[in-house]
Structure formats: structure tokens, C-alpha cells
Design a protein that fits this description.
CATH superfamily: Outer membrane efflux proteins (OEP)
CATH topology: Outer membrane efflux proteins (OEP)
Helix content: 55-70%
Order of helices and strands: HEHHEEEEHHEHHHEEHH
CATH architecture: Up-down Bundle
Strand order of the largest sheet: 2-5-7-8
Radius of gyration: 44 Å
Largest sheet: 4 strands, antiparallel
Distance between the termini: 50 Å
Strand content: 15-25%
Number of helices: 10
Shape: rod-shaped
């Protein structure tokens, strides 16, 4: 019977379309974002474009073959017609006899109608092109590397954004827990105040004061819940999660901080300036322009090529031979020399060189920016860790002060204001420590981004 009820429950669960809530960790969130984000998928397609261009460049290494076949009707096929008569001496055993006769030689004139079929099979292969083909292939490889670096830069930015959103979510969730715990303590204080008021030990002001504090904490919790919803929405958008999917983001700031914040080795500046994807993209583009320069130089060099032709046709010879099918072949080599292009290549090379110089200046400026951001993050981490150590000590003192104040209030020695101040101080310190840990993790996430980390 129990089994039957269990089966019915499952069927009802499925029939209603209720989906189990999916639990997502930070690592899961990063993986999902990298898989679902439209910008990442667009970048992957851009890499495919570069790979397709490389296939096109490699086609220059192979011979080109084509077939040209034409069938047409024309009104200017050649016909043989007599020319004006000409006197020709009469010969006898090679000796002129002194007599002459008038001869009418035949010559072709295009005035006949007829149809023609002609077919050619051609093969052309460049033997030497001044390394233009080699540099074209290398250029497309650099282009693929450039788009790959751009894709990785987009990935690194996305990973940092996911981490920041995730840290914000966990921090807000932890702060809500801190406020709810404080709210529970305030409710206990209210019970004490009400009992003391009934016994005539405390005034009604204490009861009203605690009720006011409780209302304030409830309002703050509602405000934090709203912020949490906003952060969750942003996180779901980054992960491109459908609205109908139910998910739960798990983890805690303390776990992530203990796993990374204290043990993570800070990258060196030299590593960042080498591995940063923006730097790599600029370097790849400089190399790409170098290949373009070599290709422009190669365009001024002679091109040596081999060719072959096989043909057959019908209907384009002089009568009476135009009814015969004829075929033949031709093979040989050729040279193509560009003598003068109006300084077009010279202008292109100058333009490429100017772009290279511009990119190198961008690269130098980017390295200075990376140095500034790196040093700023390192200084922030050290300052935040020092601040957190101080806050942790303050928390120990604050907890002891709160316990003393609570005992004092129960014994009528401490006022409700002093008790509230002691409790509020503990709450503020706990919240401050959570935010400091979050900021440290965010700084580490930024260092990972600068260092080209994709996890």
C-alpha cells in the first residue's frame, strides 16, 4: 500500500511539471556561464571564421583546374572565297615558258552562319610567388590566434563577473543570517524587558525601545532580501538560466575565503604582462601585420607558373574541315611581372607600418595600466587583511562586551540602550568581516582576470 501511494505521488509530481531544484556551486556557475553565454558562442564562431580563412589560404598551395565549355551559334564563321586574279608564270620542268595564266587564290572571310562547340580543360600552378602563399597561411594562423585570444579575454571577463556576482550573493545571504540571529536575540531581550516591566523593574520605555529595534531589523532584513533577489537575477542572467528553471546557489564566503583567499599565491607582475589576453591579442596583431607587410613586398616580385591545356572542338575550322572533331594539348611555363602599380604597394606598406607602431604604443600603455591595476589590487588585499585581523579582534571583544551587557541587563545594572549598542556592535563587526572577505575574494578574482585565468 505504501509503495502504491509513493508511485502515485511521483506521477502527480511529474504530471504537475514540478522540477527538482538544481544546486549550483561557484565552479558550476562558471562552467554554465562559459557554456551558455551568447558572447562566448559568438567568439567561438569568430574563431571558426579564422579557421575557414586558413583553409582558403592553404588552397594557394594546390594547382587550380577548370573546364570551359561553350556551344554557340554565330553568323561570322570563316568561309573560303576567291580573291582578285593574279598572273602566274607557266613553268615547264622548273623553267618558265614565257606564258602566264590568271590564278584566283582563296581567302577566308567571316560571313557564314553555323554552330560551334569548344571545350578546354586548364590547369595552372604557381611555382614561385615570393613566399606570398607561405605568409598568407601564417597570417591566417595569426588571425586565428588573435580571435582565440579575444575569445579568452571575453571568457576571463565573464569569469570575473560571475565570481563577483556570486560573492555578492553569498555575502548578502550571510548578512541576512547575521541580522536574523540578531533579531532572534532582540526578541529574547523583548521577552526579558516585558517580564521586568510586569514586575515593575523596568519601564515601558524598554519594551517600546526593543520593539522599535525589532521593527528596524525586520525592515533591514526585507531590504537585504530585495538586494539578494537583484543579485540572483544578475547571476541568472550571466549564466543564461531560463526563468522556469529552479536553481539554488550554494556555498559560503568563509568556505571560499579559506579555500582561496588565504592560500592563493599572488601572481607576479611579469606573469600578468605575459599572460594577459589583451597583451597577447596586441602581440598577435603586430605579428599579423608583419605577415601582411611581407605579402605586400612579395606582390612586387615575379610570379612563375606552369600551365597545361587540353582542348577539343567542332565547327570553327575553314570549310570543308569544320565538320571534323579536333583535339590537342598545350603545356608550358609563364612569368608574370608587375612593373609598376602607381605606388599602391608602397602606400599599403607604409599604412601597415603605422598601424604596427600604433599597436605597440597601445601595448606599452596597456602594460602600464596592468602594472597600476596589479599594484592596486595587491595593496588593497594587504590593507583588507590587516583590517580583517583588527575586526576579528574587535569581534572577540565585542562578544565579551555583549555577554557582560546581557548579564548586566538581566540584573538591572545595564540599560536597554547599552545592551542594544553592544549587540549592534557585534552585528556590525560580523557584517564588516563578511564584506572584507568578499572584497578580498573580489581582488583575487581581478588578479585572476589580469593573469588570464579561466576558472
Amino acid at each position: 500500500m505504501k509503495k502504491f501511494i509513493f508511485i502515485i505521488s511521483i506521477n502527480v509530481f511529474l504530471a504537475l511539471g514540478i522540477q527538482a531544484q538544481k544546486v549550483i556551486t561557484l565552479e558550476d556557475a562558471i562552467s554554465i556561464a562559459l557554456k551558455n553565454n551568447p558572447a562566448i558562442n559568438a567568439g567561438k564562431n569568430q574563431v571558426r571564421v579564422a579557421e575557414a580563412k586558413q583553409i582558403q589560404a592553404k588552397s594557394l598551395l594546390y594547382p587550380k583546374a577548370n573546364i570551359l565549355s561553350k556551344y554557340f551559334y554565330t553568323n561570322n564563321l570563316p568561309g573560303m572565297y576567291p580573291l582578285e586574279g593574279k598572273e602566274v608564270p607557266v613553268m615547264n620542268n622548273g623553267t618558265p615558258t614565257g606564258d602566264e595564266v590568271i590564278m584566283h587564290p582563296m581567302a577566308p572571310f567571316p560571313n557564314l552562319d553555323g554552330d560551334v562547340l569548344a571545350t578546354d580543360f586548364n590547369v595552372i600552378y604557381p611555382i614561385y610567388a615570393g613566399n606570398k602563399r607561405k605568409n598568407a597561411i601564417a597570417l591566417t594562423q595569426d588571425l586565428s590566434n588573435f580571435y582565440t585570444n579575444q575569445l579568452n579575454e571575453t571568457k576571463a571577463q565573464l569569469v570575473e563577473r560571475v565570481k563577483v556576482a556570486y560573492y555578492n550573493y553569498l555575502t548578502v545571504k550571510e548578512v541576512i543570517k547575521v541580522y536574523k540571529l540578531a533579531l532572534q536575540q532582540l526578541n529574547k531581550h523583548l521577552e526579558l524587558a516585558q517580564k521586568a516591566y510586569e514586575q515593575g523593574v523596568r519601564s515601558e520605555f524598554d519594551v517600546l525601545n526593543f520593539k522599535s529595534k525589532i521593527a528596524g531589523f525586520k525592515s533591514k532584513i526585507i531590504e537585504l532580501e530585495g538586494k539578494k533577489d537583484i543579485v540572483v537575477t544578475a547571476l541568472r542572467n550571466l549564466l543564461n538560466i531560463p526563468d522556469q528553471d529552479s536553481v539554488e546557489f550554494t556555498g559560503s564566503i568563509d568556505e571560499l575565503y579559506n579555500a582561496t583567499g588565504l592560500s592563493l599565491n599572488k601572481p607576479e607582475l611579469s606573469s600578468i604582462q605575459e599572460k594577459n589576453y589583451k597583451i597577447q591579442s596586441l602581440e598577435t596583431m603586430v605579428n599579423l601585420l608583419d605577415k601582411k607587410t611581407k605579402m605586400e613586398h612579395a606582390s612586387k616580385l615575379p610570379v612563375l607558373f606552369a600551365f597545361g591545356n587540353y582542348h577539343f572542338y567542332h565547327g570553327r575550322d575553314f570549310p570543308p574541315f569544320d565538320e571534323a572533331w579536333r583535339n590537342g594539348y598545350a603545356v608550358g611555363v609563364g612569368v608574370k611581372i608587375n612593373l609598376f602599380d602607381g605606388n599602391l604597394s608602397k602606400g599599403k606598406i607604409a599604412e601597415i607600418k603605422a598601424n604596427q607602431d600604433k599597436l605597440e604604443e597601445y601595448q606599452n600603455g596597456l602594460k602600464l595600466k596592468l602594472r597600476f591595476e596589479y599594484q592596486k589590487s595587491i595593496e588593497n588585499i594587504e590593507a583588507l587583511k590587516t583590517k580583517m585581523e583588527a575586526q576579528q579582534k574587535n569581534l572577540e571583544v565585542g562578544k565579551k562586551a555583549y555577554e557582560i551587557a546581557k548579564v548586566g541587563y538581566e540584573n538591572g545594572v545595564v540599560t536597554n540602550i547599552e545592551l542594544n549598542d553592544a549587540q549592534l556592535n557585534v552585528t556590525k563587526i560580523k557584517t564588516s568581516i563578511l564584506n572584507i572577505k568578499k572584497q578580498i575574494l573580489i581582488e583575487y578574482a581581478h588578479l585572476d582576470y589580469l593573469n588570464g585565468m579561466l576558472k
